[in-house]
Amino acid sequence: MKSFATTAIAAIALASLAVGAGLAQNKPDSSSVMKQQTPDLKNANVVTRYTDWKYQALYERVKKRGVLEEISEFLSPLKLKQKLIFETTSCGVINAFYDPTAQTVHLCYEMLDWIENVAAASPDKLGQGSASNGPRRGLLPGVTRAEAIVGAIGGVALHETGHAIFDIQEIPRLGREEDAADMVAGFVMLQFGSEVARVMIKGMFNMTHNWAAETPNISAALLADSHSLALQRGFAILCLAYGKDPETFKDLAQAWLPPARQPSCAREYRQAENAFRKTILPDVDPVLLKKVQQMQILRPDDSKL
Amino acid sequence: MPQPLNLVTAECGGQIELPYQPGAPVTICYEYVGLIEQAAPSRLGTVGQAVVTQDIALVGPFVQFSLRSVARQLIDMLELPVWGNAEDAADSLAALIMLEVSPQIAQKTIFGTAYFFAKAGQTEKLDLGAVRPHIAQRYFNLLCIAVGSDLVRYSVFLPIDRQEGPVDLPKNRYGHCLQLAAPERSEYSQIKYAFHQLIRDKYVDLPLLKQVRTIEWLADD
Fold this sequence. Notes:
The complex is a heterodimer of chains A (305) and B (221).
Chain A: H1 4-23, E1 46-50, H2 56-64, H3 67-74, E2 84-89, E3 96-99, E4 104-108, H4 109-119, H5 123-126, H6 145-169, H7 177-189, H8 194-214, H9 220-224, H10 230-244, H11 246-256, H12 265-279, H13 286-294
Parallel strand pairs in A: 1-2, 2-4
Antiparallel strand pairs in A: 3-4
Helix pairs in contact in A: 1-2, 1-3, 1-6, 1-7, 4-6, 6-7, 6-8, 7-10, 8-10, 10-11, 10-12
Chain B: E1 7-10, E2 26-29, H1 30-39, E3 44-47, E4 50-53, H2 54-77, H3 86-101, H4 103-121, H5 135-149, H6 171-178, H7 187-203, H8 206-214
Parallel strand pairs in B: 1-2
Antiparallel strand pairs in B: 3-4
Helix pairs in contact in B: 1-2, 2-3, 2-4, 3-4, 3-5, 4-5, 5-6, 5-7
């Protein structure tokens, strides 16, 4: 099928671009930093579009950085069976989703806004979450604002791309759909070297922590939801990372991952690797994938956010 | 199967289930059976609007546990590609098999398992770091697949035209389960498609399967 890798890169690029956009208010135009594209990296089946002016500033920043154009390039190794549309839009709710009837990934400005202003904000600025004794919102100790934004947006984009790839490529899923998409996102994040992987995993875990902080009371409706609970999702992704590279993620696992989970992480990563090899890799152009993997994912400006 | 799969019943030293180990025998612990017996009603019980006899409450979760334990081992033995949680995958495969044998077997095993999960869910501690989801989540997953397979038979678990109860499949979930506009996207259809693609078409002897399906499983006696 298609390349997670490609997808990943696209998503990561999207993240970094959006992040850059988020900070662009305080910085000179940094568009010259990006653009590492290679002319042959283009996926003819990927359509991109920016819509909506409700979030004018976000819209302009994301468009100026050419986020969606880069997605098409990053998805180039993926032999998609049908068209796939990526759209940034205003959804009226904090969300991102894949619509299978329109084969469109919607990246909502509300989600980008929430990530910038809640998940990546200082906890002191946010005050207490919805429960007085619940976990605090905002940045976890040890996570930078740049990591929180890049990792979260990249993770969300990868998750939704996972849904799209499952649907368009008709990939069988034995696990639950939402966990499956999380696993795609987590696996892809880990394919671009340890530096990129740490940024992505930290940002993604920080986001799940913030989701958990916003829903501290675990109701029957939450247990019944098609998504796993926020922290279950965070632990699953961190476990994948620790399973792939225990050295790189040792400190994060010690800080955040329950010890009882750690022994199964290597097996969980092998499971994802096996699934990727058998269901997606056959449709990936290996030459293009290599090119995509060599692209610069994190840019100098990202670390200064 | 590329290698033998051993099934054993055993005392497990007080544990209801042995920790999963790839390649280990599928072990049904007497302690787990004891838990099922403990949860079963003396004659009749209910889970939401569904009435469950003692027999059903005993047989259903035993069958589910056996099938899901075999499925979990087969996932590794056959190196099946699993996106998502492998524990959920084993549960989903068990549910699918329970639903596909016959409508009668399906109802017995689904109702019985739902009864047991609902009871056990009242006492199981929520461990967010555990590989296996909480039993309440597994309960709702089971119902989701069941209603997707046969809306009429399992509608007792849906709060339609009545107030939602604690063991009903909530409104925020059942739309996903039914997918009335596109049933091929229901969780039931999804696991069935995966089973066909990854297991039935590659590893199942179809004439033997046909024979197996003619056996009268779980007769009332």
